[in-house]
Structures are given as C-alpha cells and as structure tokens.
Prior knowledge:
By secondary structure, this protein is of the alpha+beta class. Helix content is 33%, strand content 13%. The protein has one domain: Ribosomal Protein S8, Chain: A, domain 1, CATH 3.30.1370.110. The chain has a five-stranded mixed beta sheet with strand order 1-4-5-3-2, covered by helices on one side.
Amino acid sequence: MCSEEDRRLFRRYVGDVRRIEHDRVSRSPSPKARMKRAPKVTSQQTSWNEANPWIPPEKQVTGDSGLQFMRNGFSMRQMRRLKQGGIPVDYRIDLHGCTVGQALGKMDEVFKLARERQLRCVEVIHGKGYSSRGGVPVIKNALNHWLPQQAEVLAYCSAPLRQGGTGALLVFLKRFSD
Length: 178
C-alpha cells in the first residue's frame, strides 16, 4: 500500500487527472492477426524468379538436379574420380541457414584458406532448398552461377550419395603457388 506521502507526490507529478467513464472494451488485434502472410506462389517458376532475381529462369536448377562444371584442361578421368568421391576432401563447409550473401562470403573465406593451406578439394553442403520459401534451392542456384566465375575453381560436381548427393558439391580448386 502507498503512504499518504507517496500519494501526494504522485498527484503533484501527474497533475490534474480525470477518470474516463465508458462501458466499451477495445481490444487490440492479436499478434497473429497483425502478421501478414507472404503471398502464395502460384508456380515454381515465379518462386524461383523471386528467390534468384539475378539468375535467368532457364539457368535455375531444382533441389534434385545434379550439377557439373569443368574448365578446359580438367580431364574426364579427373571428373569421374571427383564424381565418385575418389578425391579426398581437404575441407568441408555447411551453408545451411545462410543467406546468399553470407554463403558467398563464407566461400570467399574458404578460397582464402585454400590458398593458405594448399587445399584442393572442398565439400560444400548447400542443401536442396526444402526449407526455403517455395522449396527453391537458393544457395544451390547461387553457387551454380557463382562458382564458374571464380578463377580458383577447376571443376565441381554434385557429391556422391554417401556425401550428400545433390545437396552438396565437391569443388576441385587449382594448385596455388607461393
């Protein structure tokens, strides 16, 4: 309970207050009602365009698509070994839960580390996009677009099933000289 002194101080600081009389109860909308739902995507193509606006729709891949890239000079024999998991993995990175920007930033860090430690084969776990909006493999598409532009990358392919299948890539890097 408040003392008389507390009441007097309260009235002095609050000033002249009148009670508002009304018989209506106003309710604020529940938090769920205030949240706006994302519009439903009517087609997979539309969701891909929204997820990867900088990648043309005809170049986008699905979560189950196998990926493969190799530069001139990288032999079919080496590619076959890479696809079969016959080249030992020097470093592994998991990009689940990253935004595209974060994922590409982490890949830059991996390439820097590869230069420092002379790493050749990197396993990149990107997932199949099942948790992303519209089920679109955003990071997978971004990597498929970005990796061929990197001079360090000689080849990459989807990993063998035991190493993640189409949810992971094996990336073979060039030999770095000191």
